[in-house]
């Protein structure tokens, strides 16, 4: 039987993790900025809804304006 050789030698694994480290180092900030922009775009309508001057309530499936 021939001797078994593996593709993942210690040198190749070190090189692989070196490239992974640098890809994550440069990609992570962009991913976090995109996630923050998405979260803000979802949060703004919720804030507007809660800060609206007109208040509404739902009674038995009908929307009614609350009077104060």
Q: What labels describe this entry?
A:
2 strands, 68 residues, two-stranded antiparallel sheet, mainly alpha, 60% helix
Q: Which class best fits the helix and strand makeup?
A: mainly alpha
How many distinct beta strands? 2
- Reading side by side through the largest sheet, how are the strands ordered? 1-2
Task: Show unreliable segments.
Answer: none
Strand fraction equals 5-15%
Main sheet properties: 2 strands, antiparallel
Radius of gyration: 28 Å
Number of discrete helical segments: 1
Distance between the termini: 89 Å
In N-to-C order, the SSE pattern is: HEE
Q: Averaged pLDDT, please? A: 80
Overall body shape: rod-shaped
The portion of residues assigned to helices is 55-70%
Summarize the topology.
Elements (H helix, E strand, L loop, with lengths): L9 H41 L5 E4 L2 E4 L3
Antiparallel strand pairs: 1-2
């Amino acid at each position: 039987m021939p001797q078994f050789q593996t593709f993942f030698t210690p040198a190749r694994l070190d090189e692989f993790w070196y490239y992974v480290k640098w890809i994550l180092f440069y990609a992570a900030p962009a991913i976090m900025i995109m996630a923050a922009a998405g979260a803000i775009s979802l949060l703004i309508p919720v804030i507007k809804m809660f800060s609206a001057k007109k208040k509404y309530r739902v009674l038995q499936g009908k929307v009614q304006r609350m009077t104060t």
